[in-house]
Design goal:
Elements: H1 10-27, H2 41-44, E1 52-65, E2 68-75, E3 78-85, H3 86-89, H4 91-100, E4 106-115, E5 121-132, H5 148-153, H6 155-161, H7 163-185, E6 189-190, E7 196-197, E8 209-212, E9 217-221, H8 226-235, E10 239-247, E11 259-268, H9 272-291, E12 295-298, E13 301-304, E14 309-312, H10 313-321, H11 331-340, H12 346-349, H13 355-366, E15 375-381, E16 397-405, E17 408-415, H14 420-435, H15 446-453, E18 459-465, H16 466-473
Parallel strand pairs: 3-5, 6-10, 14-15
Antiparallel strand pairs: 1-2, 1-4, 2-3, 4-5, 7-9, 8-9, 10-11, 11-18, 12-13, 15-16, 16-17, 17-18
């Protein structure tokens, strides 16, 4: 583990431990059990001068000026100045606090509000109680926590020290609330589905595996809640959604997390066009509620969410390959052609052992990075997604879409495959890809096919990665900035 920014010297620790004992000797208890406050700091800022308040918070500034002291306390809603004078609280109390109060301590300040000559709203303290002693100081004397790994590892300090981090996380959580309100307002029912699954499916991804001791059986952490949500549709719930923790055993990068949050929803009797329209309305709603405008900046680039472009995936890939990508059926032949055309080297293509993974690799390297403004891609080859509905006019295509922004995929949706015969054929193709070494392929789920044989209505579903969406809305360079406690090495 790297050296922590909050490491302190033996002398400083001993000094704070002595102050702790001084507080214990006076109060009997160092870490108090409660404090009766009259309001939050933000609420207090709306009160008139002369109002009596009792405000708790963490000490983030202290300045002793002879017989007068000014300090600041902080809570999640804001911060406020407080003052103490020897004349108001007495010499004994004044000296005790000057000797034993430190940055980082939690205190309760009782007194009246007033405005200083400099225009600063302040609590004129008549009583200060130490609620909890901090044995370690705040990072860099509250000037900020700048080491990236330490920021993520000690997230609580990052939130205290960096207002931008605090505001982004609050915005993220409010975005999730707005999302729930939007979904339930459109008659979607929020449900829960299992994280431990006998077959992890619903996306092309390598799962995590764990062992269930009582059942003596291996399970996989879900990579998507797709199949259980579809079963709920089959059971008669017309519109369902889940804000789900998903897990994919893939490489770490600023735009990928192994544990991440998605929303997936499914609507009976909708097709992918209905869902494309609904998805765009939802994303516009979240951006407008979070930022107040549909024109937002992301890492130096202005993004205009008042409109979107449309791009035919198959047509664009045909243009790139110079042939019809719908007819690809042999991974070895496709790999050889890519090498012959000098599009990629054999080493670059070596990890990709199936047609879907090869085509997806080419797309991610040659097309996706060039899409900057909001763009819906549609019309995909059927072999790319085994759970999507085949197009009625050409079964080699699927009725699917993705929304891309700045070279990243914000969501994926499609008309769902509800034909059990086609579904079993698609699962068998996945099994062949898995046998060939494709770690992102998944095993057939015969129970899911059985449910489909009992009958499933027409339906369409969408999945959105909320961490990624939040990174765009709040202009954050890494998905870890959107997570309260991100995974670190």
């Amino acid at each position: 583990m790297p050296e922590q920014t909050t490491a302190i010297s033996t002398n400083e620790l001993e000094a704070r431990l002595q102050k702790m004992e001084n507080i214990r000797a006076r109060d009997g208890v160092v870490w108090k059990d409660k404090y009766e406050r009259t309001s939050t700091i933000a609420e207090a800022r709306g009160l008139k001068d002369g109002t009596a308040v009792r405000l708790p918070g963490r000490v983030i500034a202290l300045r002793w000026l002879g017989k007068l002291m000014f300090g600041r306390i902080y809570d999640m809603d804001g911060e406020i100045q407080f003052s103490l004078s020897l004349a108001d609280i007495g010499e004994e109390q004044f000296k005790f606090l000057k000797t034993n109060l430190d940055m980082g301590d939690f205190i309760g300040v009782a007194g009246e509000l007033y405005t200083t000559s400099a225009g600063e709203l302040t609590v004129k303290g008549t009583e200060v109680i130490v609620l909890a002693k901090a044995l370690r100081p705040l990072p860099e004397k509250y000037h900020g926590l700048t080491d990236t790994e330490t920021r993520y590892r000690q997230r609580y300090l990052d939130i205290i020290a960096n207002k931008d981090s605090r505001d982004a996380l609050i915005g993220r959580f409010r975005m999730t609330k707005n999302l729930r309100d939007f979904m339930t307002g459109h008659n979607f029912l929020e449900i829960e589905t299992p994280i431990l699954q006998s077959v992890a499916s619903g996306a092309a991804a390598k799962p995590f595996t764990t062992h269930h001791d009582a059942l003596d059986t291996d399970f996989q952490l879900r990579i998507s809640p797709e199949l259980p949500l579809k079963l709920a549709i089959a059971a008669g719930f017309d519109r369902v959604f889940e804000i789900a923790k998903d897990f994919r055993n893939e490489g770490m990068s600023p735009m990928h997390l192994q544990e991440f949050t998605m929303i997936e929803w499914y609507a009976a009797y909708w097709d992918f066009r209905d869902n494309m329209k609904f998805t765009w309305e939802l994303i516009q709603h979240l951006i407008r509620e979070s930022r107040g405008t549909l024109q937002i900046e992301y890492q130096g680039t202005m993004m205009d969410f008042s409109k979107h472009d449309m791009l035919d995936y198959t047509a664009k890939m045909n243009e790139l390959f110079g042939c019809n990508v719908l007819e690809f059926d042999c991974a070895d032949a496709l790999r050889a052609q890519l090498i012959k055309d000098k599009m990629f080297t054999a080493d670059e293509l070596e990890p990709y052992v199936s047609v879907p993974t090869l085509v997806d690799f080419v797309y991610k390297r040659k097309i996706r990075p060039n899409i900057i403004q909001p763009t819906f891609l549609y019309n995909y080859p059927a072999y790319m997604v085994p759970l999507a509905r085949r197009n009625d006019e050409d079964e080699r295509r699927i009725d699917m879409f993705q929304l891309l922004v700045d070279g990243a995929e914000l969501c994926k949706g499609y008309s769902e495959l509800v034909n059990p015969i086609q579904q079993m054929e698609a699962f068998e193709e996945q099994a062949r890809n898995m046998s060939a070494g494709d770690e992102e392929a998944f095993r057939p789920d015969t129970d899911f096919v059985k449910a489909m044989e009992h009958g499933m209505p027409p339906q369409s579903g969408v999945g959105i990665g909320l961490d990624r969406l939040a990174s765009f809305i709040f202009d954050l360079p890494s998905l870890r900035d959107t997570v309260l406690f991100p995974m670190v090495k």
